[in-house]
# Entry
Amino acid sequence: MNWITGTLGSSIGKKLMMAITGFSFCGFLAAHLAGNLTIYGGKDAFNAYAAHLHALGPLITVAELGLLTFALVHVITGVTLFLGNLKARPVRYAVNKSAGGRTLGSATMPYTGGILLAFIVFHLMNFHFVDKTETTIFAIVSNAFTSPAYVGIYIVAMVAAAIHVSHGFWSAFQTVGANHPKYMPLLRTLSIVFAVIVGIGFGFLPVYIFLLA
# Structure
């Protein structure tokens, strides 16, 4: 037990928790996007997808609690690592170069993470926790995206998600030990591809619905 506590409390342990929870969120994003794409099939297809999820009952509840737990671990650990880095180096370097693999994604991880956290709360309040007894999820989504402000917020959040994932995906592989020079270029490429899919896949949905309204 002391070994586990010591490991998870170390910098390496915290990064490992970030990697594991990050992998889970990437999987969730892929599954969530696949489900959301049913909206292109019309209201019946999208409502049928939502009804199928609702029919899973306890399984969905367990999955939601698992995601909530992982989210808390990810956020708390991320903030701890960020504050630890600031404490270790309170004064920034005079020159901020992109050498050493530093990218837009890696340089902005805490900030894009903060944007995503705020958006998730906003998103849940507008979709997940609304009263659905006298309406459908398609109607809720359609009404939400008639607002240009909401469409703009959603697009900004998806850009932040794409930037966050562009670094987080391959960095998670590196953390768990898959950092061989033979594989890392491929993983970096896959990260960019996945980030673009996430950004465009989710980002175009509100635009599509707005144009249909």
